[in-house]
Amino acid sequence: MTFPQCTHLHYQCLQLNGEVDLHNSPQVRKQLLNILKKNQSVLVDFSELSYIDSSGIATLVEAFNIAKNKELTLTIVAASGAPLQVLELTHLDKVFTLVNSMADIKE
Amino acid sequence: MTVASSIIEVNNLVSHYGDRQILKNVDFSVEQGEIRVIMGGSGSGKSTLLNHLLALLSPTSGTINVDNIDITSANRKTLTALRQKMGVAFQGGALFSSMTVGENIKLPLKHHTKLDDNTIDIMARLKLELMNLSGFEDLMPSELSGGMLKRAGLARAVIMDPKILFFDEPSAGLDPVTSVELDELILKLRDAMNMTIVVVTHELESAFKIADKITVLFDGEVAITGTVDEIKNSTDVRIQNLINRRPREENVDAEKYMQRLTTGRN
C-alpha cells in the first residue's frame, strides 16, 4: 500500500494513516527517501496516524538525517496521542520540528 | 482457538515438576494495557507461572490463552508467530556472550524481519538510548555490570515493540536510583506503546509503584489478586506478613516432619 502524497507550497507531504509498523515502515522509508532524492523538503502528516512503532520512528530518524545533510527540512505535522507519546518517549520531540497543523507551514 | 476478553487468561492451571505439585488451580487474567505484578516468596510458583505463560512448560491440566490463542494446544508455527508479539526480559539479561550488546539487541529483528540494516541499526540505538546504554553497542556482555546487563536484556525484549512484555525481577540487584528509573521506564512503555506488562518481583516498593493489579502467590495458589490498595488493606495474615516483611509462621506437623527426616518423602 502506498501512502498518499500531496504538494503544499514548496513541500512534498506524506500522509501517514492508520498504523505504521514492521510491515509497512519499509514503504514509508521508500517514499520518504524518494522525495528527498528529488531534493524536496518533506511534511509528514500525522493527523490520521493512530500508531507508529520503532521501525517507523527509526525510518523518520534516517530520513530526518538525510534531509539535514542536504539542507532540506523534514517537519512532522499534527502529531497527537500515542504517536506523540512515542516521540516524547524517545526524546525525538526535541529533535524533529513539530507543528500543529498545515496552517502553521509558511513558505 | 477460543475467544477471551483478556489478553492473558489462565484457568485452573495445575502444574507438577515430577511428583511435586507446584501450581494448584491457578486462575489468572490480565487485560490489554495492564501492568500486572506477580508477587510471592521463593518457591511460591511465580517463575513456574511465568514459564507457563511463555509456553515453556506444559501444564498437568488447565487452560492458558494468550492473545486469544490456546497455547497449551497451539502448534509450533502459531507459537512462533505469538512469540514475536511477546518480549521477555530475563533476570540476568540472558544475552549471548559471544555477541556484542548491539548484535544481541538486533538479533530478533535480523531473524524475524526484512527491515533495512539502517532501520535496524537506528531501532537498536533508540532502545539503547531508552535504557541509558548509548555508546555500549560494541561492548561484549562480559564487559557490562549487572544493572547494565539487565537493561540490555530489556532493550532486546522490547526491540520488536511487543504487545506483551514479561519481566522477571526487574529491580533485583540494582542500585535504588537505577531501580526507580526502570520503574518509570516500565510505566512509559505502557503509556506510549500500550504494552501489556507482566512483572515478577520481590520488591514491594517497585510493585506498589507500577502495578495496576497485583497477584500474590502462596505455595502455588493465588492468595489474592487486587489493586495496590486492596493488597495493602488485605486482612489475610500471609499478605500482611509479606507486606510487613514478617517471617512465616512455621506450622510443624510432627508426624510428617518425622517421616520426611527418616524416609526423605513428603
Q: State the separation between the terminal residues of chain A, measured CA to CA.
A: 30 Å
Strand order of the largest sheet of chain A: 1-2-3-4-5
Say what oligomer this is: heterodimer
Shape of chain B: globular
Count every beta strand of chain A, where a strand is a DSSP E run of 2 or more residues: 5
> How many E-type strands of chain B?
10
N to C succession of SSEs of chain B: EEEHEEHEHHHEHEHEEHHH
Question: What is the helix content of chain A?
Answer: 25-40%
Helix content, binned percent of chain B: 25-40%
Query: What is the strand content of chain B?
Result: 15-25%
Main pleated sheet of chain A = 5 strands, mixed
Structural class of chain B: alpha/beta
Biggest sheet of chain B: strands side by side, in what order? 6-7-8-3-9-10
Broad structural category of chain A: alpha/beta
Which architecture of chain A would the CATH scheme give at its second level?
A: 2-Layer Sandwich
Task: Identify the most extensive interface between protein chains.
Answer: A-B, 20 and 22 residues
Number of domains of chain A: 1
Unreliable segments of 5+ consecutive residues of chain B: none
Q: According to CATH, what is the topology of chain A?
A: Transcription Regulator spoIIAA
Write the layout of secondary structure elements.
The complex is a heterodimer of chains A (107) and B (266).
Chain A: E1 5-8, E2 11-20, H1 25-37, E3 42-52, H2 54-69, E4 74-77, H3 81-89, E5 97-99
Parallel strand pairs in A: 2-3, 3-4, 4-5
Antiparallel strand pairs in A: 1-2
Helix pairs in contact in A: 1-2
Chain B: E1 8-17, E2 20-30, E3 35-39, H1 46-53, E4 61-66, E5 69-70, H2 76-83, E6 86-89, H3 101-112, H4 117-130, H5 146-157, E7 164-168, H6 176-193, E8 196-200, H7 204-210, E9 213-218, E10 221-226, H8 228-232, H9 237-243, H10 254-263
Parallel strand pairs in B: 3-8, 3-9, 6-7, 7-8
Antiparallel strand pairs in B: 1-2, 1-4, 4-5, 9-10
